[in-house]
Amino acid sequence: MRVFGCQTFILTPKEKRLKWDPKARAGIFVGYEEVSKAYRVFDIEAGQVVISRDVNFDESTFGLQLPITDEDVDDLDFELLDLDDEELRQMEYKQTGKRKNRLNDEDTAAPRPRAVRQRPGLEESSAPENNSSRQEEDEETKDSGDSTPPVLWRASANAVEAAVDLSEPSTFEAAVSGPDQVHWRKAIHAELESMRLRGVFRAAKLPNGQRAIGTKWVFKIKRKADGSIEKYKARLVAKGFRQKYGIDYTETFSPVVKYVTLRMVIAISKHFGWPIDQLDVVTAFLYGVMKEQVFCVIPEGVELDSTFDCLELVKSIYGLKQASRVWNETFDEYVCSIGFQVSDFDPCLYIKTSDGHCVFILVYVDDVLVTGSSLELIAQTKNDLKTRFEMTDSSKCAFVLGIELLDGEDGSVTLCQRRYVDDILKRFGMDDCKAVASPVDMSSRLVSSDATTKVDAPFREAVGALMHLTTATRPDIAFAVGYVSRFMENPQEEHWVAVKRIFRYLQGTKTHGICYKPSARIDFRGYSDADWAGDLTDRKSTSGYTFMLLGAPVSWGSKKQPSVSLSTSEAEYIALSLAIQEGKWIHRLLCEIVMAANEEGPELMIHEDNQSCIKMTKNPVNHGRAKHIDIKYHHIRDEVKRGEVKLKYCETAVMLADIMTKGLHGPRHKEMTATLGIREHSD
């Protein structure tokens, strides 16, 4: 924790200062910003409180001081990005799905001739960290040398803390001396032994001009679907945020299986009665061979001869920017060598056919699913994988990527996230709230606000948590979550109330999930709809679509349209364009899977409830009213003309995409969710 009232120096971005202007401004530390990773500092020169992450602290000096000089500033080393407050906010709230490391961790470098004058009492600090990962719930606020303060969110006068497993230590010392030290010592030993067997490190002397990146131990308790402890995991990770592009790494992109593909393969497997087995690659990233020369400091728990001062990475480890990509390339190369082909429509789906049978592999980083029409082929595939990689075999898949697979007596399978719903309700202080029948309050219409203050609540974090749930298993809240996400920039009290309304709806539907049922034939159909001028702020429309497979959604979407539509037909036409883009990809992926199983793929049929829109796809009718529509949407006519997409009129009462475009009253919402195949699963 920083000392309140101490003197600070705030970096002035390059674009906001002239060549001879001071690089920093004097200020007084007054607190932490609650909605971004930054500090609140009273700017003495401007006479107001500013928000910045690029701050140096002089905790030996308090109150107003003499103006800072250029000579003083030259002693400071600002390594953070030169961003003004607005750019900083835009950058920090992008959903990256990955946790950001602190920028104040030091790395070791070989000595270089450089004179640096030290100013007593000054210490550089990075901004407080905001945990954005859905997989890492622990906040490392007790780390040695870490200036990150614990962040306490306030919502409606009730303190809300992010969910933290207090049994997970944040430092190496805490792990080896805490109450669970026996378990953590075993986990540390297992990690180091795994690295030794795979030849991950090579003892080295750091060359002149080179630098060694830091390392850190991360401790995690892996739990089962019921919340009980499965294993203690210790992971040695690199502080990859210190890597330099073009020197320590180049390409970093690595694909993961899409949720649509996962749901589709699960549904098709249940339709044919195929088993789904699950494998977990042990320390997967340690299999990738490094292409760049990277050195790291000697980790805690590792002892080397005094002639060596660092380790050279021969294999990739967790935390490196390129680690995921290197692992994916290694896995892809091996799987293709044993007869599998990469899907044309998802790079993380592998298909193999043999003697009229088929087997599929799905991979999400180190989680692997294997299914197919032949038990012999499945067993052979698993043995081949275990020969090359160390794996734990869970046999039947019951819990993958936070999703429970619950089998029904009628051969159905329900994809549910009960535990995740419980977690986010508890995290945001809504675990004791009263349930409601629908996620949107129909008596309230939200609009944007120009207010200079924001609601004192974890609005962005809550919407982000709900977005993950929406993407995975809950299409019934897709519109509601998209609706509140429109007010991210300046949320007010009414917007926070709308978010809490979604939590209240989840309170009563914790056990609801997508239910796929086997049928006589593979039933696949799509629905497209639009809500014309539904946004009261800019009068733009909302597009919605859903694609049904075996009685439940396999893909869905709710998106605000980029331009104002002049009529309902135009809004429906633009929405149909979005639906066809998604539908063509899903249809091709589905045909690829079922054809591997020697079945004929279904046709792509999309239901539409606007007759005028359907006519516009076949002929340029109503030219005077439609001539202004952007040419990019007219691909619809080509798709229909070629017969690749078929459109069918349906009544508005049975339009399943209606729930994706607007809020519905309780009875209507309940009816639509049941028709969508979202059902409650009781144990």
TrEMBL record:
Under the heading Pfam families, the entry gives: RVT_2 (PF07727), SH3_retrovirus (PF25597)
> Membrane-spanning residues where?
none
Report the domain of life of the source organism: Eukaryota
Which residue ranges are recorded for the region named Disordered? 93-151
Reverse transcriptase Ty1/copia-type domain span: 200-440
Q: Where is the Retroviral polymerase SH3-like domain?
A: 6-63
Q: Which InterPro entries match?
A: DNA/RNA_pol_sf (IPR043502), RVT_2 (IPR013103), SH3_retrovirus (IPR057670)
Signal sequence span is none
Protein name as annotated: Reverse transcriptase Ty1/copia-type domain-containing protein
